[in-house]
Amino acid sequence: MAPDRMTTGTHNSVDSSPAWFAVWTRSRHEAAVHAQLMGKGVEAFLPTIPKWSRWKDRRKRVDWPLFQGYCFARVRPEQVRVVQTCGGVAGLVSFNGKAASIPDEEIEGIRSLVASDLQFDPCPFLPEGSRVEVIAGPLQGVTGRLVRKGTRARLFLSVDLIGQGVSVEVDAADVRGC
Known about the structure:
Layout: E1 19-25, H1 30-39, E2 43-45, E3 48-54, E4 59-65, E5 70-75, H2 80-84, E6 89-92, E7 94-95, E8 98-99, E9 101-102, H3 104-115, E10 131-134, E11 143-148, E12 152-159, E13 164-171, E14 175-177
Antiparallel strand pairs: 1-5, 1-6, 1-9, 2-5, 3-4, 7-8, 10-11, 10-14, 11-12, 12-13
């Protein structure tokens, strides 16, 4: 089941302990929402990745959101309304109209990765077997089925009529779901 992006009410739960929620932001408002949440005393997390931006006269290292359009807030379910009232917030990721919490270990895993010296890049979550399109490189525009994921993805291209196919390795960041 696909998540609803907006929630109309607060999450009703018997457990009122703080939980992490994914805050869906307006385009390029992640940092502003993060700052507002912190200003309201809400524990917030905005994982970023350094990238080089180029202007006509200079290059500058800029921290970009790891997950564009999202930041995370840790609140009790009854405090969800505080998050929703921040400028730039489009809503909370929800299922069946209720804000969906994120397990602490998932957020801690992302925190550990961001704090490490490891090289990482964002990539879409595409399950194996998904139909994908190559968006960069010599195979740009080609569609196929994702066979294996990892730092390298294996793409299966087929000619269904004759029941034959070929597989090729492509960079996982160069494919997107169809």
